[in-house]
């Protein structure tokens, strides 16, 4: 894994404020548009990653897919992507900034969501995934860290970095996702092509199994494991 780059002061017209999160290939920063003054989130590929042996085959194509969604999805529970840049040695995605962090802190200990809030989150996720599916996009990596929190129980699904485009390149068969949140079909590489994968509440309920019960859905300690396992 390449060393993380130090936080840049600015990228293009965007003034970097602070890091919001780190992910597979880069860092997400809170930044300000120097012209409009608007706060945005900027997902930036760490420069060292361009030399990663799997960058060309895996990470770059997936980044291109996420970047290609700029301006395409307009839904209250999906993080809007405004713009993207990808060259031979730099890349970033400009997104709507969602100020409340992600749902990961609410999956253990005393911060578990009340059941009614968890159900509301599932409901909103299902609507968002259905909308994305109708636009030909299967997210493939629904989990608490990829569900951003606005105000209260207002949530927005982010990180389409593992997405599958139903009408895209037919050779896109890379197995991506987070194992403990993947459906059996996805692990067997059947999920993304099948209508049920996005229409059913499975991926969201796995995340909610964590937010309401505090354990991974496939864990033997989890009281909801029986109902989510197939
Ligand atoms: N639009 C956003 N607004 C606020 N925070 C964000 C936003 N996008 C990502 N983050 C934060 O950065 C983390 C990593 O972003 P993510 O898109 O999931 O990257 P990766 O593809 O590397 O997993 C998220 O879990 C979240 O905490
Ligand atoms: Mg992520």
Overall structural class, as computed from helix and strand content, comes to: alpha+beta
Supply the number of structural domains. 2
The named CATH superfamily of the largest domain:
Transferase(Phosphotransferase) domain 1
What is CATH's topology name of the largest domain?
Answer: Transferase(Phosphotransferase), domain 1
* Backbone shape: globular
- Mind telling me the C-alpha Rg? 17 Å
Q: Order of strands side by side in the largest beta sheet?
A: 1-2-3-4-6-5
Count of β-strands: 10
| CATH architect. name of the largest domain | Orthogonal Bundle
Structure description:
With 230 residues, the chain is α+β, with helices and mostly antiparallel strands. The protein folds into two domains: 10-96, Phosphorylase Kinase, domain 1; 104-223, Orthogonal Bundle (Transferase(Phosphotransferase), domain 1), CATH 1.10.510.10. Helices cover 26% and strands 21% of the residues. It contains six helices and ten strands; from the N terminus they run E-E-E-E-H-E-E-H-E-E-E-E-H-H-H-H. It has a six-stranded antiparallel sheet with strand order 1-2-3-4-6-5, with helices on one face. Strand 1 (10-11) and strand 2 form a beta hairpin. The protein is globular. The chain starts with 9 loop residues before the first strand and ends with a helix. Residues 23, 145-146, 159 line the site of magnesium ion.
